[in-house]
Specification:
Largest sheet: 7 strands, mixed
Number of helices: 20
Helix content: 25-40%
CATH superfamily of the largest domain: ANL, N-terminal domain
Structural class: alpha/beta
CATH class of the largest domain: Alpha Beta
Length: about 625
């Protein structure tokens, strides 16, 4: 019996639809049952489940005290952490070794003067030291934030400077595939650009040394008893940063209690994790999936940390790790799954694997079929959520059917719906993804936003009292859904909304097309504007505009036929694999590249072609260039 079914049985509910309905209509009853069933350890018990229900400002478990790290280190048995990388050999930590290192790191941070509310930041990859330092900081009530070392110094300073950290953990470098990467200059720039730093801790990873630092060995030098400082339910646990593709990254604050309760619920009921399970989900430390991966420990499951080039030496590397570690849940990006499909890759036997999670962008129907063909008996759990809530909003579970090309539906405790422009629920058509009831893991707030105005403007500016997430979604009558792209990148042509994901599902199945990106430039005079499709071609392939137009017209509608189809050398994506439609749109409207997507690009050159394309358009005047141009990056 899955963990979600056991929970449903404990509350006397017999099917998922009824369980979900109860979870969003009786918040007090559902969440009190969750914390009891999953054994949330309140050092000081709450006086209620919800002290205030209205959003923004819902007050969860008032009066309660607890500590996230205390829950993450309750596991028993054998190995708690397995770490693979292209920089060093495999590392394993048992539960006892993990607790010992966290206790030592906690004592070391305390010697450096770290206490409740101080900010500890890391410029580190996904390695055991990062996890240990995070748990040690959390045990003290300090506030954590991390950035992956592939980020440039400017983009890291844009993030970390907002929260004024006192301690920085960093490594001199790492290896990406077969390429050594030296980050000593970047660490020096961080030290110069973060004036509040009092200490830098050097983690031995990659080649070289960091001068004038506390070493990792020195931080962990003294044995110590493991302890946890109880903190209020909404005390800051960590700060996650938005992508920064449209301006300065938002510093989103998540609390100890909200993350503990939500991740226990999500991981146990949606991902079916418990003692003896093992979760592998490739992520950098800049993505909320790293935080979700770490929370596998909350359920007593062990975690697999992976650092390096995810497709080196080939796309089979992650699958081989899953086989070697006996992963029961493996997470993958849709782009990775589609790359495996394109290469004709066949995964090895994975007898322990029960679920394959997919998140980060929509997975086309062909991806569903590839998984069904090669991973018989494995539940494909496609989800969508985000940094803002640090969890899934819509996804599957062992108690829900997997529908090809769709997400199973809203997750437990999430009152998700689609709203039209008038704030009315819609079914069977595109609408704004909204959440109509509060969730424990909604942010405590934004750092540096004392009156909450930026927080309100980010999520509650369109529908008062209702969270607007920023995605377009279409719910079916049975509750399943399709995410159609970011609503700020949605195409509104002649009053009809067109989801970007619909384009990509058609275009990227055509021979010779590796990737694609579509944007709509509105007409200030009220006309249809201009629909632009950019395609990245495979080596040796030629642009066949007529076929692309024909396929879009046939599969979707005449409104989906672009005004221009242009080949570009590379489609821009951020470091978590999401396409950057909005930055491209801003560039085409005249914004400079540096102000559009500073430091977040997976490939720093991927916007160059669009900048040149915009310049040629401006030079050509109001009539713009010809309706269909050739390769923008080739002329």
């Amino acid at each position: 019996m899955s963990r979600i079914e056991a929970f449903a049985e404990s509350v006397g509910i017999g099917d998922y639809a009824a369980l979900h309905r109860w979870s969003v209509t009786d918040l007090d009853g559902f969440w009190s049952a969750v914390v009891e069933h999953l054994d949330v350890d309140f050092t000081t018990p709450p006086t209620a489940v919800l002290g205030r229900r209205e959003m923004p400002g819902a007050q969860w478990f008032p009066g309660a005290e607890l500590n996230y790290a205390a829950h993450a280190l309750r596991g028993t048995g054998g190995v708690a952490v397995v770490a693979y990388s292209q920089t060093r050999d495999v590392v394993e930590l048992t539960w006892d070794e993990l607790r010992d290192q966290v206790a030592r790191a906690r004592a070391g941070l305390a010697r450096l003067g770290v206490g409740r509310g101080d900010r500890v930041v890391a410029y580190l990859p996904n390695i055991p030291e990062t996890l240990v330092a995070f748990l040690a900081a959390a045990s003290l009530g300090a506030v954590w934030a991390s950035c992956a070392p592939e980020f440039g110094a400017r983009s890291v300073i844009d993030r970390f400077a907002q929260i004024e950290p006192t301690v920085l953990l960093a490594a001199p470098g790492y290896t990406y595939g077969a390429k050594p990467v030296d980050r000593r200059a970047e660490v020096a720039a961080l030290r110069a650009g973060l004036p509040t730093l009092r200490h830098v801790v050097a983690v031995p990873y990659g080649a070289g040394d960091l001068p004038d630092t506390t070493t990792w060995e020195e931080l962990l030098a003294e044995p110590a008893a493991l302890a946890f400082d109880p903190v209020p339910f909404d005390h800051p646990l960590y700060v996650l940063f938005s992508s920064g593709t449209t301006g300065k990254p938002k510093a989103i604050v998540h609390g100890h209690g909200g993350i503990t309760v939500e991740h226990l619920k999500n991981h146990a009921f949606s991902w079916d994790l418990g003692p003896g399970d093992r979760i592998l989900w490739f992520s950098t430390t800049a993505w909320m999936m790293w935080n979700a991966l770490a929370s596998g420990l909350l359920c007593g499951a062990s975690v697999v940390l992976v650092d390096g080039n995810p497709v080196f030496p080939d796309v089979g590397w992650q699958w081989r790790i899953a086989q070697e570690t006996g992963a029961t849940l493996m997470g993958a990006s849709p782009g990775f799954l589609m790359a495996c499909r394109a290469e004709g890759y066949v995964p090895p036997a994975l007898p322990r694997l029960r679920q394959l999670g997919a998140a980060g962008s929509p997975l086309p129907p062909e991806g569903f079929r590839w998984v069904a063909e090669h991973l018989d008996g494995v539940l494909l759990n496609v989800g969508s959520g985000g940094t803002d809530v640090c969890t899934g909003i819509v996804q599957g579970s062992p108690w829900q059917a997997c529908v090809t090309g769709e997400i199973a539906g809203p997750t437990l405790g999430v009152a998700a719906a689609a709203f039209d422009e008038d704030g009315k629920p819609v079914v069977g058509e595109l609408g704004e993804l909204v959440i109509t009831e509060p969730m424990p893991s909604m942010p405590v707030g934004f750092w540096g936003d004392p009156d909450g105005s930026r927080y309100r403007d980010a999520y509650f500016d369109v529908y008062p009292g209702v969270w607007r997430h920023g995605d377009w979604v279409r719910f079916s009558a049975t509750g399943s859904c399709v995410i159609a792209g970011r609503s700020d990148a949605t195409l509104n042509r002649g009053g009809v909304r067109l989801g970007t994901a619909e384009f990509y599902a058609v275009v990227e199945e055509l021979p010779g097309i590796v990737d694609s990106l579509v944007v709509h430039l509105e007409d200030p005079a009220g006309g249809n504007g201009e629909l632009l499709l950019f395609v990245q071609l495979a080596d040796g392939a030629e642009l066949d505009e007529a076929r692309i137009a024909r396929e879009l017209r046939t599969a979707l509608s005449p409104r989906h036929v672009p005004d221009r189809i242009t080949a570009v050398p590379l489609v821009p994506r951020n470091r978590t694999g999401k396409k950057l439609e909005l930055p491209v749109k801003r560039i085409l409207l005249g914004a400079p590249v540096d102000d559009t997507a500073r430091g977040v690009l997976a490939d720093p050159t991927s916007l160059d072609a669009f900048s040149g394309f915009a310049a040629r358009d401006r030079k050509s005047g109001p009539g713009r260039a010809s309706p269909r141009t050739g390769a923008a990056g080739a002329s």
